[in-house]
Design brief:
The chain is of the alpha/beta class. It folds into two domains: about 260 residues, Glycogen Phosphorylase B (Rossmann fold, 3-Layer(aba) Sandwich), CATH 3.40.50.2000; about 190 residues, Glycogen Phosphorylase B (Rossmann fold, 3-Layer(aba) Sandwich). About 40% of the residues lie in helices and about 20% in strands. Helix 11 crosses helix 14, helix 12 packs parallel to helix 13 and helix 12 crosses helix 18. It is globular. Bound molecules: adenosine-5'-diphosphate and alpha-D-glucopyranose (GLC).
Length: about 475
């Protein structure tokens, strides 16, 4: 079976969040199941060295954003089809925004071109290779299923995966001409219109053969107004083709026994060696190295979604209860400022690094006792999975994939030896303070804490089960 992935991020080449981790690891997990994956990805500046050593396999004169070509190259176990269109992608800044953080004003043309290049090769094939299934990720790939809807023509089946519904990819209705979208499909309900605009994600949800999201709980949550963010209507209408498949993690890249970014490697039998990582982490963030209480970490985009404003309110309680806090993140200026201010107010107890640093995120997982994830919504979440693998117990809000991956260390779980972290209900300073008290009590019992760490490290967090679920979904949709 051949599968074409369409994505705007792919680790380790270009990453702003978990989508990249998933796009980077899933192809490798599908390979052993007999699925040949190629991945269409924009040729951003970071990808240019790969473009230089790849082979041109297709060229287009008239994508929505002008000319472009696809360059095939193998790298890090992934077969990439890089969309080389310098006028769209070879610019400074991030994948979606300029160096000042402002969204590029031609994003509809940039990602419309990505989707259209993917659709064209799906029709025409690439040197004899044709996809059976086209798998589009998030709004950036959302137009692919629409471009592929050609009544009467045999086309591959399409799967649309929602990683983050908070980004619908909304552009003015006038863009539909430029994007080459059929005018008679510009309507609400089952069309691609959304309140007078073109919405790329909605288009994908309306036109794909299957819709998935990245955890079973989130698949239920998005059917409600609270979590659907205005797309609950189309999702309810298509609930029969919607399912949740939990993300896995790359267990080779995230292996505490072999991780080169750690000061000291360890496994579940040598947990005391985490201390070496803690010492390195404390040094880097100017935290008191002799402190005795639990060290909590945060590794996150600093956005509304992640509930970190509520955590800021709970910092005095965290410190008063004997905890330390290490923060690695970047994003909303007011949150960056709030964590910097907390580090000044509580020297040695709170430390933060405002920025993005992949290697440091590994050291943080290696050296902390617990990872705090107070998200208001969380489609899956990956940092709690990394935490489990590194014996860094997740302290998480009961929502989405967080609820599906962490076993609360309540009394029954403690007695049965199956707890792997702590769940709480209310994302507020009080809600977080409440769960912190439970963490402090459990941490004081060193044997209980170690039992939780070992249970966490035993938990299955790789891709095997979920890759089989995707393979089964592809089979199912193909058999129709
Ligand atoms: P989301 O995709 O919503 O940001 P996930 O938990 O799925 O959330 O994935 C976030 C990914 O980004 C993880 O791999 C996490 O380690 C990484 N990450 C987030 N912020 C930073 C940062 N400041 N530095 C390094 N890695 C980060
Ligand atoms: C999104 C979600 C996150 C998920 C990631 C990968 O960015 O916010 O919960 O883990 O995508 O699917």
């Amino acid at each position: 079976m051949n599968v074409l992935m369409v994505t705007s991020e792919c680790a380790p080449f270009i990453k702003t969040g978990g989508l990249a981790d998933v796009a980077g690891a899933l192809p490798g997990a599908l390979g052993p199941l007999g699925i040949d994956v190629k991945t269409v990805l924009p040729a951003y500046p970071a990808l240019m060295p790969l473009v230089a050593r790849g082979t041109e396999v297709a060229s287009f004169g008239d994508l929505p954003g002008g000319a472009g070509r696809l360059v095939e190259v193998e790298a890090e176990g992934v077969t990439l089809l890089l969309l080389d269109a310098p006028q769209l992608f070879d610019r400074p800044g991030g994948p979606y925004s300029d160096p000042a953080g402002k969204d590029w004003d031609d994003n509809h043309r940039r990602f419309g071109s990505l989707a259209q290049a993917a659709a064209r090769i799906s029709f025409d094939g690439l040197l004899g290779w044709k996809p059976d299934v086209v798998h589009a990720h998030d709004w950036q790939a959302g137009l692919t299923p629409v471009y592929l809807k050609q009544p009467g023509v045999p086309v591959p089946k399409t799967v649309m995966t929602i990683h983050n519904i908070a980004f619908p990819g909304r552009f003015g209705g006038h863009t539909r001409g430029e994007l080459g979208l059929r005018g008679d499909w510009f309507y609400p309900g089952a069309g691609y219109e959304y309140h007078g605009d073109v919405a790329f994600l909605k288009a994908g949800l309306a036109f794909a053969d299957r819709i998935t999201t990245v955890s079973p709980t989130y698949a239920r949550e998005i059917l409600t107004p609270k979590f659907g963010m205005g797309l609950e209507g189309i999702l309810q209408a298509r609930a029969d083709v919607l399912s949740g498949i939990l993300n896995g993690i790359d267990t080779a890249a995230w292996n505490p026994a072999k991780d080169k970014a750690l000061a000291q490697t360890f496994d579940s039998k040598t947990l005391a060696r985490k201390a070496g990582n803690r010492a390195a982490l404390c040094k880097q963030l100017a935290l008191d190295p002799d402190h005795q209480g639990p060290l909590f970490c945060v590794i996150s985009r600093l956005t509304e979604q992640k509930g970190l404003d509520a955590l800021v309110g709970a910092i005095p309680h965290l410190v008063a209860g004997g905890g330390q806090l290490a923060v690695l993140g970047t994003g909303a200026p007011e949150l960056e400022a709030a964590f910097k201010a907390a580090a000044e107010e509580f020297p040695g107890k709170v430390g933060c690094y405002i920025g993005y640093d992949e290697a440091f995120s590994h050291l943080m997982q290696g050296g902390s006792d617990a990872i705090l994830i107070p998200s208001r919504f969380e489609p899956c979440g990956l940092t709690q999975l990394y935490g489990l693998r590194y014996g860094t117990l997740p302290v998480v809000a009961r929502t989405g994939g967080l609820a599906d991956t962490v076993i609360d260390a309540n009394l029954a779980a403690l007695r049965a030896g199956v707890g792997t972290g702590f769940l709480f209900e209310e994302v507020s300073a009080e809600g977080i303070a409440g769960v912190l008290d439970r963490v402090f009590r459990t941490y004081a019992d060193r044997d209980a804490w170690q039992m939780l760490q070992r249970a966490a490290m035993r938990q299955e967090v790789g891709w095997d089960t979920s890759a089989r679920a995707y393979a089964a979904l592809y089979q199912e949709v193909l058999s129709e």
